[in-house]
Specification:
Shape: globular
Number of strands: 14
Structural class: mainly beta
Distance between the termini: 83 Å
Radius of gyration: 25 Å
Number of helices: 1
Strand content: 25-35%
Oligomer: single chain
Order of helices and strands: HEEEEEEEEEEEEEE
Largest sheet: 8 strands, mixed
Length: 230
């Protein structure tokens, strides 16, 4: 083979290798980090371990559970974000595995000044699992959540809220709001210095294509409204 032909073959091989490298070498920019128009954490709603419950929303456990039809789809992710905005900053509230945390103010997330909440519902409405309308009445919930005498149904999600003052008074009765409408109610969003607040979100999901497979999910939140920073 002549020298010119050898050089042509070598150059051709180099070009082929360069083309392949474009597909094989990882790119520096991670697309997942550029999704969305804000700078909040991408996985802010993807905590795992939401409470897996019985039909009355009494807690069974907070382990990760997968849909029966898919080995990699977790049906008890935390799919409702509550973001608190106070006089100092903004942060996502933490889901607790038990309501007992609300009895320990020193362990709670604390705000700095009055707080306004924003609820973001990310429960799927289609796919491997989706939001289902639960016919359970609020008066028939587990004893710690029961709204006495209330015939309203869980439907497509309920937000239950109670509060007490940090001076040690008793908890108020549960107030309740449809998950889809909770951002419309001031009393479900605005809390003042001295309040200790307990929020529970409950809803039912249905697996697909197994339409007879249902799961009951519960999220517990609690925080204390403390004085603003100076």
């Amino acid at each position: 083979m002549s020298t010119s032909k050898k050089l042509f073959s070598i150059n051709l091989l180099i070009i082929v290798l360069m083309v392949f490298s474009l597909f094989l070498i990882p790119q520096n920019t991670a697309e997942a980090e550029t999704i969305g128009s804000d700078n909040r954490p991408i996985l802010r709603w993807a905590q795992t371990g939401a409470c897996d419950c019985n039909e009355d929303y009494s807690i069974r456990d907070t382990n990760i559970h997968y849909c029966s039809g898919s080995g990699n789809v977790v049906y008890n992710n935390v799919e409702v974000e509550i973001r608190g905005n106070d006089q100092f900053d903004s942060q996502v509230l933490t889901h607790y595995p038990s309501l007992s945390i609300a009895e320990q103010p020193n362990l709670l997330q604390q705000t700095h000044g009055d707080v306004e909440l924003t609820y973001t519902n990310l429960i799927p409405t289609s796919g491997r699992y989706k939001l289902y309308s639960d016919g359970k009445k609020l008066k028939n919930l587990t004893s710690e959540l029961c709204v006495i005498g209330c015939n309203d149904k869980v439907g497509k999600g309920q937000v239950l809220i109670r509060k007490r003052h940090s001076n040690g008074e008793n908890w108020s009765a549960w107030s309740h709001y449809n998950l889809s409408e909770v951002n419309s109610y001031s009393e479900a969003r605005n809390f003042v210095i001295g309040d200790i607040v307990c929020i529970v979100i409950i809803y039912e999901i249905q697996e697909s294509p197994n339409v007879f497979k249902f799961h009951h999910i519960r999220l517990n939140y609690a925080f204390q409204v403390t004085a603003a920073l100076t």
